[in-house]
Design brief:
Layout: H1 32-61, H2 64-85, E1 90-93, E2 109-112, E3 115-123, E4 132-134, E5 140-143, E6 152-160, E7 166-174, E8 181-182, E9 184-187, E10 193-194, E11 200-204, H3 211-216, E12 218-222, E13 228-233, E14 237-242, E15 251-257, E16 262-264, E17 267-269, E18 272-279, E19 283-288, E20 293-298, E21 301-307, E22 320-323, E23 326-334, E24 345-354, E25 361-365, E26 383-386, H4 396-402, E27 409-413, H5 433-438
Parallel strand pairs: 8-17, 10-18, 19-27, 25-26
Antiparallel strand pairs: 1-2, 2-5, 3-6, 4-5, 6-7, 9-11, 11-14, 12-15, 13-14, 15-18, 16-17, 19-20, 20-21, 22-27, 23-24, 24-25
Length: 442
Amino acid sequence: MEQLVTSPDNPASPSSRTPHQPLHTEPRDSAAAPRRSRRVRRALAVTALFAAGALSLSACGGDAEAGGHDGKNGQAGADAAAAKDASDAKIQVSSKDGATDASINDTGVKVTGGKLTDVKLTAVDTGKDVAGAISPDGASWKPSEQLDRGTKYKLVANAKDAKGRPATENATFTTVSSAHSFIGSFTPDNGKTVGVGMPVSFNFDKSITNRKDVQSHITVTSSSGQQVVGHWFGDRRLDFRPQDYWKAGSKVTMKIDLDGVNGGPGITGVQSKTVTFTIGRSQVSTVDMDTQTMTVKRDGQVIKTIPISGGSPQHPTYNGQMVISEKFEQTRMDGSTVGFGGEYDIKDVPHAMRLSSSGTFIHGNYWGDSSVFGRTGTSHGCVGLEDNKGGGGDTPAKWFYTNSLIGDVVIVKNSKDKTIQPDNGLNGWNLSWSQWVAGSAS
């Protein structure tokens, strides 16, 4: 059978031969044969290359339709398997991940469908871990201390469901900054036993313009049933007291619910706490500057009369009702801190108890002659009781210190000085009840 072989240089022409005419396969000259042979081989090679490329593309891509179905089915199967193996434990963190104004009080973790196994809360900048505890039922976790303001924290919580399948939740958040929040330091502290004159006193770190709202979110109640009313001294201090001294043995509860409360332009509260304290026995001591004596009454009965040395004629002691706000077994008294620079600086004053923020104390006096006690005033405004250097021995000052509580009342009368201002220390008892109520924002 005849074959027709063509090349680009010598295309076949139907009119060049007749049927059954033999095909001349020999080149016209010897030089042309190798050239045509090389062209044929090149053409075959190109054809093979394209064929190989097509096979390669087919191998990489596969059948589009078949491959697509296989991928979807495989992913669907994987998703179904993952869903079937997912933990039933669902963890919820109260502070939202990425928050920049998180509460310093409400941070916590809860879980449903399982139990918490561990929770770690860390201050990012310092690396300090925040102590906390998981509830006995494993359903929640809370920090055991209040968080700091303006601080970035990282929380990692882990839990397991009934089948032991784990779950994890992470959150990073920053607590509300001090620049945009307010906080109140207060006295007395939780769990304390105090005297009958102890008010609840708040000192805020920002000026409060929305006083009514702030006051309404602090409630103070007594087991005695006494009505308790708040009174503002300026825009940063809020005190609470009943009309008369607290009833001895009563329990006082203060609920602070200031978290999120607007205190003024650009500032909100962050505190949420309940404080309970106990009123001890009733002790009220009266200092008479005419007789230079102090009469101590406990539960209405006189238990001791103590000779004192009050303020000198040049520096008389304030009159009025004063509340013991601090106690120091020993302290330094430097006249330069209260306007008497160079007049005294005693580094070891024993048995000192503060009566005013301006520097009035009732304290032990070891440097005065014993003859002055009960006879004449020699101090710069304090009430001095006879004592020994170092505070040792059985002295009047030591007895009174030992038998006094923070919150006990000391009344000074018959002094040549004025009545102490009600905001100079914890001394709001020097306002009448009507004056006190008039200072309330509620």
